[in-house]
Amino acid sequence: MTETNSIYHYITPILTVIGVFVAAYGIFRNTENAKKRATIDLIIMQRNDEALQKAIKRVNEMSKTEGCIFSTYIAETEETYEDRESILKVLNQREFVAAGVLRGAFHEPLFKEFEYSILLRDWNNLNGFIQDIRRIRNAPTAFQEFETLAKKWKKKPLKVKH
């Protein structure tokens, strides 16, 4: 009897520790799956958001126009209103997503696979606008999450798959 009690005395804590590790692993996996699901939902939502897609299209058209200087759209005038709104819609969406990615709300590797080129294209197109907004409005943190993510991804580019 005492030998059996002695075995249980050692086995019980070992099994408890194993159970804790199994539960922790399950929680970790569920969290990762939830982040992936949220990321996929976000990407689908962005692609189905007509107003956002229209704004992205307009910003891309503007960036391809020779002599287009995005800084001219910082001023809130009647002539620049619609284009300015398109720029800000794109920037606000990129800032929201970047904050979510950097804070771990979204699955960064998955999001990077889908959005790498798009995010860096928008950063390259709108970087000057952002710098001028910061300077003119004395807002040094404007769109800083977008900048942080773009620079992070530039340092570690998406790997080419063969």
TrEMBL record:
Q: Which Pfam families match?
A: DUF4760
Provide this UniProt record's keywords sorted from A to Z: Membrane, Transmembrane, Transmembrane helix
InterPro entries found in the cross-reference section:
DUF4760
Transmembrane parts of this sequence: 6-28
Q: Which domain of life is it from?
A: Bacteria
Q: Does the keyword Membrane apply?
A: yes
Q: What is this protein called?
A: Phage associated protein
Instruction: Write down the species.
Output: Bergeriella denitrificans
